[in-house]
Design goal:
33% helix, 268 residues, alpha/beta, 7 helices, Aminopeptidase
């Protein structure tokens, strides 16, 4: 067997990386730049250098905050003026009473309700004209809600003339409801000259559906501004006076006016 000649020992040499020197120089420059930045912002007399903070962006706060509305609920928007809701009886639902010549109660109701809205808007109030079963009535919040209707076209007797007012049968604030009714009775009679036909206030008026739909804090009343038979000429030819009577009653309630004079009552 032949013996292979032994190989000379391999000597490992350390390779010097070409980037080592430059890497160390980068670290030194970075530290120098950091120290220079700190001491540049230092003011003599201070115990330690101060670091200048980035400017803060200031966003103005809005003066009026509008909450997100709850579906089906009232809008929680702050108001600077009273809000008054006016329901035009039977509007967008049915015709109401219909006279032999075709005159419909809803037409008379809507005409007077529109005039009430116009007068209140001119006096600086926020007003909303509402349909009979308006979706907005669900949880409705306002300073006052008035529903305007009229009585039958049929001849009943010679005493079937005048107006009538009612509030919720079971109100959460009976005193406010009574004041609203008293104001409407007093001012409407005084301006229109019509008498209160109190004996014909029906349970349906006191149980009017909107009374159960609106927010309990909203004072509400329903008024039948006349009979479409004996009071027809007044209701169709002088609707402005009927509207003025309703508006005067609303203002009496909002302004806490004295309720006078005594409301004349028709004799059944």
């Amino acid at each position: 067997m032949q013996t292979q000649p032994s190989s000379p020992p391999v000597t490992k040499t350390r390779r010097r990386t070409s980037g080592g020197f430059f890497y160390q120089m980068q670290i030194i420059l970075a530290v120098a730049f950091f120290l220079a930045t700190i001491f540049t912002s230092w003011v003599p007399g201070q115990s330690q250098p101060s670091i200048v903070a980035a400017p803060t962006l200031i966003v103005p706060t809005p003066t009026t905050v509008v909450a997100s509305p709850i579906p089906g609920g009232p809008t929680a928007t702050p108001r600077s003026r009273p809000l008054i809701g006016i329901v035009a009886g039977h509007w967008q639902n049915d015709s109401g009473a219909v006279c032999p010549d075709g005159l419909k109660e809803v037409e008379v109701n809507l005409n007077i309700a529109g005039l009430v809205q116009k007068l209140l808007t001119e006096k600086g109030f926020d007003t909303e004209l509402l349909a009979e079963f308006d979706p907005r009535l669900n949880g409705y919040v306002a300073d006052v809600l008035i529903s305007i209707h009229n009585d039958s076209c049929d001849y009943i007797n010679d005493q079937a003339t005048g107006f009538k007012v009612a509030s919720a049968k079971a109100s959460t604030n009976a005193e406010r409801a009574a004041n609203l009714v008293a104001c409407l009775r007093s001012r409407y009679a005084m301006i229109t000259g019509l008498s209160l036909h109190s004996t014909s206030v029906t349970p349906d008026m006191a149980s009017y559906h909107a009374f159960d739909e609106i927010d309990p804090i909203t004072p509400a009343a329903i008024i039948e501004t006349g009979f479409l038979n004996l009071d027809r000429q007044f209701l169709t030819q002088q609707p402005e006076r009927a509207a003025q009577g309703v508006v005067a009653g609303i203002l009496c309630f909002i302004n806490h006016e004295e309720i006078f004079p005594a409301t004349p009552v028709s004799t059944p």
